[in-house]
Design brief:
The chain is α+β, with helices and mostly antiparallel strands and 182 residues long. It has helices spanning 2-28, 75-83, 90-96, 109-118, 135-138, 148-164, 167-181; strands at 34-40, 46-52, 99-102, 130-133. It has one domain (2-181). The chain has seven helices and four strands, in the order αββααβαβααα. Strands 1-2 form a two-stranded antiparallel ribbon. A two-stranded parallel ribbon has the order 3-4. The protein starts with a helix and ends with a helix. GO terms for molecular function: phosphotransferase activity, for other substituted phosphate groups.
Amino acid sequence: MDIAISSIAIVFFLSWMIPLFAILIKLDSRGPVFFKQQRSGRNNKLFWCLKFRSMVLNEECDSVQASDNDRRITKLGAFLRRTSFDEFPQFFNVLAGDMSIVGPRPHMIAHTEMYGASIHDYMKRLHIKQGVTGWAQISGYRGETTELWQMEKRVSLDLWYLENWSFWLDVKIICKTISAIF
């Protein structure tokens, strides 16, 4: 399923998104089209997670989580983030085998270290490949986590997904994600 869906996304969406967003990103701000950041993957193996760049270049990108009305987010970046279009390059990560379509979202290394030390069973969420979308995201726990309980809830939803995984659960998550985008 990962190979089929990521191949379809790359051929039918990224084939036109990359040139279009490349032009728009370059017109909006200086810097590369893609944002690459090392993230914690399956078994805590590091990989380069790809996204369309939605922020100005900054020194805080590996330590400070994006927030609502973040001064670093560009005008185009706000649109990309709101529609989740910034995440589409992660289909290349899926095709490369670093990620799955569905699974716990990959976190910054700094967050893996911080939450791994403070949330019980946090590291269990790294027993499977991280996903472009996940149970926690469609359950309302995506984006910024300003308080520890928010990440604890996200982790509990990730662990529920691990314990209750099925093909049909993945289909449900994918359908809800598509519905949320549109």
